[in-house]
Amino acid sequence: GGGGYNMRGGGQHRNYHPISSLNPYQNKWVIKARVTTKGSMRTWSNHKGEGKLFSIELLDEQGGQIRATMFQEAAEKFFPIFQEGKVYTISRGSLKPRNVKFNKTPHDYELNLGRDAEVEFCGEDKKIKHQLFDFKPINAIQDMPVETYVDIIGVVQSIEPISEIISSRTKKEHKKRVIRLCDTSNAGIDLTLWNDKAVEFDENALPTGAILAAKGLRVGDFSGRSLSSGFTSAFQINPDLPEATKLHQWYQATQGQGVTSLSASGGGGRGPSRRITIGDIQELRQNLDETKAEYFDLKATLIFCRKYEFDRPPWYEACPSDSCNKKVMQVDEGQYRCEKCDKIYPGRSLRYILSMMVADEDGHQWVTAFNTEAEAILGKTAEQLNEYVMNVRKIPQSDIFCSIFSQLHASNAIPLVRDVRYGSGSDI
Fold it and tell me: Average of pLDDT values for 333-362?
């Protein structure tokens, strides 16, 4: 029959092939390796159809490393089986040349595991390391090319609250958190964590003074030098490593005094060096690298808000889970379904999408303020504004929001930060 999975916890009867020896010309091989990194399940949609995939990175006793990717049915089958940090034997996969743009492992090839792949959980094997790091001092990042991938170990100097951005290309919401790290090279840098990692690594998980070892971070040049996590970045908090001991002793003695940051102040590239005017936006779009997000500060005055009505308010009904916030559908009285969470909740939250016209000395521009920013501008949560609107229905429908938003005309300049990813759309 086809491939399968079992949890015999053994596999000692086999002769294992070193990962470093794998190539497309071998027909039969069995490897024994630890899953050092497990990426999230990803989906795609294009003219050929839709699909899903996820990847893992594997490490064996000899130090060989390789990425394995599973698609469609194989992704569904093996996603709950492969667990980060566990050891497995694997066979019956195919090999192809790695895509160096996305695959940063040192192997020339990468594995594709189909539904017929053989996977066996082995239990612990102390001969296989949990992770291989190639740490670089933070001050060396200053001279590294953009898009380089690097491993670092640093002390947490500060951690920002989680925030959200909306991709202008996909309109999907992404969570981000900025952490400032420093090390014994007397240099500091901002690391941006995205989505699941941004939620997982909060102030409790990463208090000031904690040691963070990170593998596979991408070097960026936004407001100086910065780092960001990717699908297969791996992290260890307070690891049992000689470098961590040395770093802890250094921080205890110095408290990070005298550290020079490679990133602009303000966390993740919101430094004052990137202030532009509305007149600069068109030029920015023309010169935008479409593979990157672009952030900037814009100081402008609110002119007016888009016309809203009862049946088209400036908010949407969202999943009440703090880690989701996706749009929900009402399925019954007081019952709301979230497709992402695959759950029905006895309630929902309201989250802003507020469209406004702003102006500065160079021109005017439509902008979109999402939940956190809109709350700061309006001084009310979407729930509070909804309750207010429900209580003043005697005002003609078309005038209610105009009446509320007219109070904002007294507002002076408001700072706005925008992700103009891929240069699409005219929202700030």
Answer: 88
Average pLDDT over residues 198-222: 90
pTM of the predicted model, to two decimals? Answer: 0.57
Contact between residue 427 and residue 367 where contact means Cβ atoms under 8 Å apart = yes
Give per-residue burial for 77-114: e unless 16+ CB within 10 Å, then b: bbbeebeeeebbbbbbbebeebeeeebbbebebbbbbb
- Three-state helix/strand/coil letters over the chain: CCCCEECCCCCCCCCCCCHHHCCCCCCCCEEEEEEEEECCCEEEEECCEEEEEEEEEEECCCCCEEEEEEEHHHHHHHCCCCCCCCEEEEECCEEEECCCCCCCCCCCEEEECCCCCEEEECCCCCCCCCCCCCECCHHHHHHCCCCCEEEEEEEEEEECCCEEEECCCCCCEEEEEEEEEECCCCEEEEEEEECHHHHHCCCCCCCCCCEEEEEEEEEECCCECEEECCCCCEEEECCCCHHHHHHHHHHHHHCCCCCEECECCCCCCCCHHHEECHHHHHHHHHCCCCCCCCCCEEEEEEEEECCCECCECCEEEECCCCCCCCECEEEECCEEEECCCCEEECCCEEEEEEEEEEEECCEEEEEEEEHHHHHHHHCCCHHHHHHHHHHCCCCCHHHHHHHHHHHHHHCCEEEEECCCHHHCCCCC
Looking at residue 352, its amino acid is Y
Q: What is the pLDDT of residues 377-391, one digit of tens each?
A: 888 898 988 888 777
**Average model confidence (pLDDT) across the chain:** 81
pLDDT at 428 over 60: no
What the block records as the tokens of 326 is 């996706």
Lowest mean pLDDT across 36-40, 243-247, 276-280: 276-280
- HSE-CB of 331 using CA atoms within 13 angstroms: 13
d(CA 261, CA 53): 37
Q: Whose structure tokens read 């007149």? A: 279
- Integer CA distances (angstroms), 420 to 75, 198, 295, 407, in order: 32, 21, 7, 29
CA distance 399 to 284: 37
Encode pLDDT of 160-183 as tens digits: 888 887 765 566 778 889 999 999
**At residue 340, does pLDDT exceed 90?**
no
